[in-house]
User: Which sequence fits this backbone?
């Protein structure tokens, strides 16, 4: 498997997260950014991903000054394609859990 094939698998699999995580291809690198909706807490979402066995880094950790942009740094270069697809599915589960938790708290309020 080439790095390009792995990247394509990540972008394709991440299509199921449309509206929650926007992953676009890039010509270089070993990571892609998964852009989150405005107002998202990328650090909390990275921790949630970690609880679902997906290792990622919040983009905000790399900012020198505050920014409204939020994203997750997603590595793929040495990850087998089946594991990429499984990781994206775990992210989908994590996001669904987050949405369910938020909906439940809004109903209680």
Assistant:
């Amino acid at each position: 498997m080439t790095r390009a094939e792995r990247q394509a698998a990540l972008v394709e699999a991440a299509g199921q997260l449309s509206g929650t995580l926007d992953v676009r291809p890039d010509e270089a690198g070993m990571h892609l950014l998964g852009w989150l909706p405005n107002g998202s807490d990328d650090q909390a979402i990275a921790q949630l991903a970690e609880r679902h066995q997906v290792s990622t880094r919040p983009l905000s950790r790399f900012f020198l000054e505050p920014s409204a942009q939020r994203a997750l740094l997603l590595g793929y270069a040495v990850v087998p394609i089946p594991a990429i697809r499984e990781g994206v599915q775990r992210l989908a589960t994590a996001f669904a859990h987050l949405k369910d938790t938020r909906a439940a708290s809004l109903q209680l309020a």
